[in-house]
Amino acid sequence: MKKDAPLKGCFQPQPKILVSCRDKKGRENALAVAYCCNCSFDPPMLMVGIVPSRFSHHIIKETGCMVVNIPTKSYTKEFKYLGSVSGRDEDKLKNMHIKTANAAQVNAPLLTDCPVNIELTVVDSMLTGSHEMFACKIEKVHADEALLDEKGEIMWDKVDFI
Q: Environment class of residue 104 by beta-carbon count within 10 Å: exposed (0-12), middle (13-18) or buried (19+)?
Protein backbone atom coordinates (compact mmCIF):
# COMPACT_ATOMS: atom_id res chain seq x y z
CA MET A 1 0.00 0.00 0.00
CA LYS A 2 1.26 3.49 -0.86
CA LYS A 3 1.02 6.49 1.47
CA ASP A 4 1.58 10.18 0.88
CA ALA A 5 5.18 11.32 1.34
CA PRO A 6 6.61 14.83 1.77
CA LEU A 7 6.96 16.89 -1.43
CA LYS A 8 10.13 18.71 -0.34
CA GLY A 9 13.29 16.84 -1.32
CA CYS A 10 11.35 13.89 -2.74
CA PHE A 11 13.89 13.18 -5.50
CA GLN A 12 16.70 11.42 -3.66
CA PRO A 13 19.41 10.17 -3.70
CA GLN A 14 21.50 12.61 -5.66
CA PRO A 15 25.20 13.41 -5.33
CA LYS A 16 26.15 16.12 -2.88
CA ILE A 17 28.18 18.87 -4.53
CA LEU A 18 30.26 21.86 -3.58
CA VAL A 19 30.14 24.96 -5.77
CA SER A 20 33.21 27.19 -5.77
CA CYS A 21 33.47 30.72 -7.11
CA ARG A 22 35.68 33.81 -7.06
CA ASP A 23 34.49 37.41 -6.95
CA LYS A 24 35.92 40.21 -9.07
CA LYS A 25 38.27 41.20 -6.21
CA GLY A 26 39.72 37.67 -6.05
CA ARG A 27 37.94 36.49 -2.91
CA GLU A 28 37.12 32.78 -3.14
CA ASN A 29 34.21 30.91 -1.61
CA ALA A 30 32.52 27.52 -1.72
CA LEU A 31 29.14 26.29 -0.59
CA ALA A 32 27.23 23.03 -0.37
CA VAL A 33 24.47 22.78 -2.97
CA ALA A 34 21.58 20.33 -2.99
CA TYR A 35 20.25 20.91 -6.52
CA CYS A 36 22.37 20.00 -9.53
CA CYS A 37 21.59 17.94 -12.62
CA ASN A 38 22.31 17.49 -16.31
CA CYS A 39 20.02 19.65 -18.43
CA SER A 40 21.46 19.28 -21.97
CA PHE A 41 23.69 16.88 -23.87
CA ASP A 42 24.30 19.22 -26.82
CA PRO A 43 25.79 21.50 -25.74
CA PRO A 44 26.76 19.74 -22.50
CA MET A 45 25.11 21.68 -19.67
CA LEU A 46 24.30 21.42 -15.98
CA MET A 47 21.58 23.14 -13.97
CA VAL A 48 22.67 24.35 -10.51
CA GLY A 49 20.21 25.74 -7.94
CA ILE A 50 21.37 28.33 -5.39
CA VAL A 51 19.29 30.19 -2.82
CA PRO A 52 19.53 33.93 -3.62
CA SER A 53 20.34 34.86 -0.01
CA ARG A 54 23.56 32.80 -0.09
CA PHE A 55 26.82 34.75 -0.17
CA SER A 56 28.02 32.99 -3.35
CA HIS A 57 24.81 33.79 -5.25
CA HIS A 58 25.79 37.40 -5.97
CA ILE A 59 29.32 36.32 -6.92
CA ILE A 60 28.00 33.89 -9.52
CA LYS A 61 25.52 36.47 -10.83
CA GLU A 62 28.36 39.00 -11.11
CA THR A 63 31.01 36.75 -12.68
CA GLY A 64 28.85 34.33 -14.66
CA CYS A 65 30.89 31.28 -13.75
CA MET A 66 31.45 28.60 -11.10
CA VAL A 67 32.93 25.16 -10.55
CA VAL A 68 30.93 22.12 -9.44
CA ASN A 69 33.14 19.95 -7.23
CA ILE A 70 32.05 16.41 -6.37
CA PRO A 71 33.32 15.39 -2.92
CA THR A 72 33.67 11.88 -1.55
CA LYS A 73 32.83 10.54 1.92
CA SER A 74 36.37 11.33 3.06
CA TYR A 75 35.45 15.02 2.58
CA THR A 76 32.31 14.92 4.75
CA LYS A 77 33.74 17.20 7.47
CA GLU A 78 34.64 19.87 4.91
CA PHE A 79 31.29 19.46 3.13
CA LYS A 80 29.33 19.98 6.34
CA TYR A 81 31.41 23.03 7.28
CA LEU A 82 31.08 24.63 3.85
CA GLY A 83 27.33 24.07 4.03
CA SER A 84 26.85 25.53 7.51
CA VAL A 85 29.08 28.64 7.64
CA SER A 86 28.65 31.74 5.47
CA GLY A 87 31.46 33.24 3.43
CA ARG A 88 30.12 36.62 4.55
CA ASP A 89 31.46 35.87 8.02
CA GLU A 90 34.81 34.21 7.36
CA ASP A 91 37.22 32.87 4.77
CA LYS A 92 35.94 29.30 4.78
CA LEU A 93 38.55 27.89 2.41
CA LYS A 94 41.43 29.33 4.44
CA ASN A 95 39.96 28.31 7.78
CA MET A 96 39.50 24.68 6.67
CA HIS A 97 42.86 24.55 4.82
CA ILE A 98 41.04 23.57 1.64
CA LYS A 99 43.40 23.09 -1.29
CA THR A 100 42.51 24.94 -4.47
CA ALA A 101 43.87 25.49 -7.96
CA ASN A 102 42.85 27.87 -10.71
CA ALA A 103 40.33 26.50 -13.16
CA ALA A 104 41.54 26.30 -16.76
CA GLN A 105 38.55 27.91 -18.53
CA VAL A 106 36.69 29.99 -15.91
CA ASN A 107 37.75 32.43 -13.20
CA ALA A 108 36.96 30.23 -10.20
CA PRO A 109 38.88 27.81 -7.99
CA LEU A 110 38.86 24.02 -8.24
CA LEU A 111 38.68 22.19 -4.90
CA THR A 112 41.55 19.84 -5.66
CA ASP A 113 40.74 17.21 -3.03
CA CYS A 114 37.44 16.53 -4.80
CA PRO A 115 37.96 13.81 -7.44
CA VAL A 116 35.77 15.52 -10.08
CA ASN A 117 35.60 19.25 -10.90
CA ILE A 118 33.35 20.70 -13.59
CA GLU A 119 34.01 24.22 -14.88
CA LEU A 120 30.83 26.09 -15.81
CA THR A 121 29.80 29.28 -17.57
CA VAL A 122 26.32 30.59 -16.77
CA VAL A 123 24.11 30.80 -19.86
CA ASP A 124 20.80 31.75 -18.23
CA SER A 125 18.88 31.50 -14.96
CA MET A 126 15.38 31.52 -13.58
CA LEU A 127 13.83 31.83 -10.14
CA THR A 128 11.85 28.71 -9.26
CA GLY A 129 10.72 29.64 -5.77
CA SER A 130 13.35 29.12 -3.10
CA HIS A 131 16.22 28.76 -5.61
CA GLU A 132 17.62 30.45 -8.67
CA MET A 133 18.40 27.76 -11.20
CA PHE A 134 21.51 28.53 -13.24
CA ALA A 135 21.72 26.84 -16.65
CA CYS A 136 25.44 26.44 -17.26
CA LYS A 137 27.58 25.34 -20.17
CA ILE A 138 30.22 22.78 -19.23
CA GLU A 139 33.59 24.21 -20.24
CA LYS A 140 35.95 21.57 -18.85
CA VAL A 141 35.82 18.46 -16.66
CA HIS A 142 38.73 17.40 -14.45
CA ALA A 143 38.82 13.90 -12.94
CA ASP A 144 41.32 11.95 -10.90
CA GLU A 145 43.14 9.59 -13.24
CA ALA A 146 42.16 6.55 -11.14
CA LEU A 147 38.50 7.23 -12.00
CA LEU A 148 38.99 7.13 -15.77
CA ASP A 149 38.50 4.03 -17.90
CA GLU A 150 40.51 3.16 -21.02
CA LYS A 151 38.32 5.53 -23.10
CA GLY A 152 38.90 8.41 -20.66
CA GLU A 153 35.33 8.29 -19.32
CA ILE A 154 34.57 8.66 -15.62
CA MET A 155 33.69 5.38 -13.90
CA TRP A 156 31.01 6.81 -11.59
CA ASP A 157 30.71 3.55 -9.69
CA LYS A 158 34.25 4.17 -8.38
CA VAL A 159 33.26 7.50 -6.75
CA ASP A 160 32.47 7.12 -3.04
CA PHE A 161 29.73 9.79 -2.97
CA ILE A 162 28.70 11.48 0.27
A: exposed
How many domains would you assign to the chain? Answer: 1
For residue 134, what are the β-bridge partners?
Answer: 48, 125
Whether the pTM exceeds 0.85: the reply is: yes
* Distance between CA atoms of residues 83 and 104, nearest Å: 25
Between CA 52 and CA 141 the distance in angstroms is 26
CATH number at residue 39: 2.30.110.10
Tell whether the torsion through CA atoms of 139, 144, 148 and 154 is positive or negative. negative
In this prediction, residue 134 carries a pLDDT of: 98
Looking at residue 5, what is its pLDDT? 74
14, 23 Cβ separation under 8 angstroms: no
Alpha-carbon gap, residue 79 to 33, rounded angstroms: 10
In terms of residue numbers, what domain contains 26? Answer: 17-158
Backbone dihedral angles phi then psi of residue 108, each to the nearest 5 degrees: -155, 155
Give the integer Cα–Cα distance in Å for 47 and 138. 10
Report d(CA 55, CA 52) in Å as an integer.
8
